[in-house]
Amino acid sequence: MGWDALRQWDPDATRLEPLTGGVANQVWTVRVNGRLAVGRLGSRSDADLAWETDLLRYLNREGLAVPAPIPTMDGRLFADGLVVMTFMEGEPAKTDADWRRVADVLRRLHQLTRDWPQRPGWRSSTDLLHEQHGTRVDLTAMPAEGVARCRAAWARLSGRQTCVVHGNPTNPHNIRVTAERIALLDWDESHVDVADLDLVLPGNAGEFDDTTYDIPAQASAAWEAAVCWDDDHAKQRLALVRPV
Questions:
Q1: What is the domain partition of the chain in residue ranges?
Q2: CATH domain 2-86 topology
Q3: Sheet architecture: strand order including 82-86
Q4: DSSP alpha helices (H): ranges in the chain?
Q5: 123, 145, 189, 223: which could form a disulfide with 134 (CB 3.0–4.6 Å)?
Q6: Residue 159 to residue 32: CA distance in whole angstroms
Q7: Is pTM beyond 0.90 here?
Q8: CATH no., domain 96-239
Q9: Which residues, 6 or more positions from 23, have their beta carbon under 8 angstroms from its beta carbon?
Q10: Distant-in-sequence, close-in-space partners of 31: CB < 8 Å, separation ≥ 6
């Protein structure tokens, strides 16, 4: 059905402009019932979209600034791969102070979701010590030596508390800063994993010391290599993961 599904929100709904930063989805500003909103069209399963939209509704109720799913005319939170969400104003994070505020919001996310179930089809970094596949991760496509390096980095996270992680908070398109709040956008890579993976932020906003920073930094680089393999960014990230 594609973007024709937008009529399930409003017969007169219109697409306005494409938004940059999306890889797996088409993302546009849209006008629905006279309101500016964001539409995201992709190929994720209904179970996957139910997990994400349930999470966003929960976080919104708990006071986090996240895009809230807008229901269709018959009350559904997604339809035919399309999700429509509230538009979040603001600017990307720029200063160390901005990034410290981002870290505070991420810690609140982690605190609120310690018992959250795993996203359907996903695996955490420590699951991948034994599993080969998880949504966009396919370790069989990577060189064996690279897989060994990634797994050695992830093994250092074993036994740590898990929760929902945003999954891509350093992307400048995913943060919107105002004087009043920090908004987290693009939850397409969110899943259950070790919290510290979210806190490898510019300016060491996660406030790790020299000893503790190395563990999440190596594990985060390994995750980005595995989830994006084998584009140039993935190869650059794998180059940062120490040989075994």
A1: 2-86, 96-239
A2: Phosphorylase Kinase; domain 1 (3.30.200)
A3: 14-18, 26-32, 35-41, 82-86
A4: 46-61, 96-112, 144-155, 210-228, 232-239
A5: 123
A6: 45
A7: yes
A8: 3.90.1200.10
A9: none
A10: 13, 14, 16, 37
